[in-house]
Amino acid sequence: MTEYPRITDQLDDVESARExxxxxxxxxxxxxxxxxxxRAEFEADQPLAGERIAMAMHVEAKTAILVEALxxxxxxxxxxxxxxxxxxxxxxxxxxxxxxxxxxxxxxxxAEEYYAAIEATIAHEPTITxxxxxxxxxxxxxxxPELIEGIVGGCEETTTGVHRLRAMAADGALDYPVFAVNDTxxxxxxxxxxxxxxxxxxxxxxxxxxxxxxxTVVVAGFGYCGKGVARKAAGQNxxxxxxxxxxxxxxxAHMEGYDVLPMAEAAAVGDVFLTTTGNRDVVVREHFExxxxxxxxxxxxxxxxEIDLDALDDLAVDRYEAxxxxxxxxxxxxRRLNVVAEGRLVNLAAPVSLGHPVEVMDQSxxxxxxxxxxxxxxxxxxxxxxxxxxxxxxxxxxxxxxxxEAEGVDFDSLSETQREYMDSWDHGT
Length: 429
Prior knowledge:
Radius of gyration: 22 Å
Structural class: alpha/beta
Oligomer: single chain
Largest sheet: 8 strands, mixed
Number of strands: 15
Strand content: 15-25%
Low-confidence stretches: none
Mean pLDDT: 95
């Protein structure tokens, strides 16, 4: 492996960056009661003592609270970014100053630097991986398979990463167990719906300075993220069109009251296009040719392949920065199609983006933390074979209960009679 510099060796004014990063982290910490409870437990019990954790995540303030908690539990943590534009350099510098944490994450790196930083985390010879998008897992399996024997397991944060992992497992190529954190209710029902919905629209509004009211917003995909975007856009008085390739989701969108159209038809009437599919080539040349002047194109999926920017560039006779974070592609007929954040994850890659709301990520990162603890629990050491695993329901409930307690919300529980009734098969009508 080639050596790659940690963030503090790449910044000119490290102390100023650290101070700014600490302020961001302190604000997030105030609003993350789940992570506060998990960290207190980790500090007391040291369940991660002696472990080495490699992480590829969106390195910003909320993520930093998770990284600190893992280090507080006794682990040595090496972290880098999972997207070239989502790192906050000041937070990365602040993390690098914490005992047992090394941060290689830096914003605006090229592809070579991006993967070199991932290799730098792998050079710590991890026993646990924590990933957002599966790039870390893929790099280990493709380039450093000799390390797999020493890896207990991993956690995957996002939809795209889980899809990739399941495909890898189906091919028999995944050689250690990974929890599909994305698929657990405390992640999917809140992070994907409320997190992606709110943060994507907020980032777009701040970047473009445009209103949602009266706009026709085309949402590509009606999975959990797409549902969140559609719901939040409709709540801000936009007209919402959904495009889908899965018939049941298309029907669900229709029954929810949204217009459902093929993208080829939606392209002619949309003002804003927001992709949430996790797939490639969702908006392509034939769609660009039908779009009106001034449309806004953005992506809320993990990778920058949903909007075919190569085709758009081929069609353009000029391209220029229309606003900070917005690039205009001018067609030969004078139409301008505006791409936000280079077609990357808009809620994290746009210049003003801050990612999901703090309270939402408190839940998701709480699940990540207890999954790491679960992988290292000696009582369950042999429970997880190589492959993709659902998060045990007890862990998800644990995080929900911490959150409810922090919010002062009480709730009912089953009586023994009710529990027996629900667990039996021989009670008739």
